[in-house]
Write a structure and sequence with these properties.
Shape: elongated
Helix content: 55-70%
Number of helices: 5
Oligomer: single chain
Structural class: mainly alpha
Distance between the termini: 33 Å
Length: 163
């Protein structure tokens, strides 16, 4: 049984559109609910893992750098999540990106680029670094931090939207 084959440029375009939409929503401010907080990062991370498995035969060096990079990316995402403004709006938790969030994002992008250069110099193959995995674990780290901060705030999460 064959898998679904998606053009890599189409997949990249879809990911860019989703990331831009998330960032715009968070600049404006949006209610925080658990499903929306974790589904997109989990899906992106899953797609990245599948991409890694299907496109490559990762070496031990590749896996070491992928795992290290994923943990590093999640930690940088958590750092970014610590800068997200959490407020009570209408009795439920809302989140909004701040200037500090964007400064942190720029810094983490620079650090991640440096990490990727070192990983490549140390033998990691280019095709063993799926963009979806990097973005997914970064947003997962952010979501975990925002979720933890939200739970300790005492403000209830927003209910899931019904469509």
């Amino acid at each position: 049984m064959g898998g679904i084959c998606v053009n890599p440029w189409l997949l990249a375009a879809i990911i860019v559109v989703v990331v831009i939409a998330v960032v715009i929503k968070r600049m404006i401010g949006e209610p925080v609910n658990a499903r929306e907080l974790f589904v997109a990062p989990a899906v992106l991370t899953g797609v990245g893992i599948l991409s890694l498995i299907k496109k490559t035969d990762p070496t031990a060096t590749d896996l070491t750098w992928v795992i290290t990079g994923a943990l590093f990316g999640a930690a940088l995402g958590a750092l970014r999540g610590a800068t997200v403004q959490l407020i009570d709006r209408g009795g439920v938790l809302w989140q909004r990106y701040t200037g500090r969030t964007f400064l942190t994002l720029i810094g983490t992008l620079a650090i991640t680029a440096g990490f990727n250069i070192v990983a490549a110099k140390m033998g990691m193959h280019e095709n063993a670094r799926p963009l979806q995995l990097s973005i997914g674990v970064s947003f997962l780290g952010e979501s975990l931090m925002v979720g933890r901060r939200g739970m300790t705030s005492g403000i209830p999460f927003a209910p899931a939207r019904t469509r």
